[in-house]
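[Meeting: bench + compute handoff]

Bench side (C.D.) handed over the final construct sequence. Compute side (W.E.) agreed to return the predicted structure before the next meeting so the bench team could plan truncations. Sequence as handed over:
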Amino acid sequence: NNGRTATQTPFNSGGSVPSLVYDGSGRGNTCPQITELGVFAGPVSVTEDCLYLNVFTTRTAGAENAKWLPVLLWIHGGGLYDGESNDCDGSALAKGGPAGPTVVVTINYRLGLLGYLGHPALDSEGHDFCNYGLMDQQEALRWTQRNNRGLRWSALKNRPVEQAGAGGPAGPGSGPPNYPEGT
């Protein structure tokens, strides 16, 4: 976490996915949101250290020769001020949806004032805007695309779904990448 007024650098952003084993039985923290102000009872694990991806797959180690799996990237709704990646349990779909097994990626992104308050004094990187929540969503899309090859996910079948109204991650990088066939 580089601070609330900076774009975030993903873990190992300079290369492929490391060949380490992580305990994936827990999920990441929830980003601060309006529910913490008393409108609703918010979750206990709310912190600014909240930019996580949850990856659901049936793929096991040693599956290098297995067929490539389609990827569904779920971006929670909530009007850009409420919600979390844990709203979607991707384990059932990962086991087998209509197209068979699928990799399901759910993400968190900064919400409310921490994600969308725009003021030049808050920006530490010289941007004319402060849409950090949108940048978080776009970085999750880039991370998923960058790590397709190492995890044998099908780059041609990436599909972002759900969004917070019309403010989702539309634009370059939000659709399937244009890779040549066979790559």
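W.E. noted at the follow-up: Confidence is low (pLDDT under 50) at residues 170-183. C.D. will use this when planning the next construct.
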